[in-house]
Amino acid sequence: MEKENVISIKHLKKSFGDFTVLNDVNMDIYRGESVVLLGKSGTGKSVILQNIVGLLKPDEGDVIVLKKNIPELDEDELLELRKKIGFLFQSGALYDSMTVRENLEFPLRRHFKKLNDSEVNELVEEALEDVSLLPAIDKMPSELSGGMKKRAGLARTIILQPEIMLYDEPTTGLDPATSREISQLILKMQEKFKVSSLIITHDMDCTKLTSNKIAVLKEGKIAATGNYEELSKLNDPFIKSFFLF
User: Fold this and answer.
1) Under a CB-based contact definition with an 8 Å cutoff, are residues 168 and 49 in contact?
2) Statement: residue 244 has pLDDT above 90
3) What residues contact 163, with CB distance under 8 A and at least 6 apart?
4) pTM (2 decimals)?
5) Were 162 and a residue from 86, 139, 228, 232 both cysteine, which residue would form a disulfide, CB within 3.0 to 4.6 Å?
6) Separation between Cα atoms, residue 156 and residue 148, nearest integer Å
């Protein structure tokens, strides 16, 4: 059975002024797959994410998401497609003036206007239960630890049941135990909702736990693709540097 392609990046190029960040990037992500994107800081990993959600437009190339070429979409088409894409930011990006409950209610009321209060509450509680955060439902973000903020951010993203999840450094700034909890949650969400995930991380424990496939970005191109075991055995000094920890 042929695998279904949910993200296909072909010959992607992106420059800022005279500085070329991405130079002929090619990568594919298939339905239900969890891909980790490795690369040195400042080499364009987040630029790839921004091209996927249409926050940036490529200078050249195609970014095909759920069979739609992002650079060719108008604003309405882009907004419609983004409903199917979840994005977990480094900070969790919670609204500081809202409780955890209100943070999760916000996207539901925005995108699913026909839901009544009871249905909204049920979905909010289920999402928080999934990330073991239900006791914090009425807390403000300022009352949450870093790990709790990440979990709340994940719950708010997954509550819309996206087909694709994008994670930008999901374990940054967390202690090792909490980082592992977040990595396990990413794995749990992938298994429960069958989402396809692209994860940017420098955390090799997270990489090993969550990835089906790893892509390594070097000098604006994908230098290697494979699973954790395959890449860890390569003799290439650049790729090897990620596995020396």
Assistant:
1) yes
2) no
3) 6, 66, 84, 85, 195, 196
4) 0.90
5) 86
6) 12
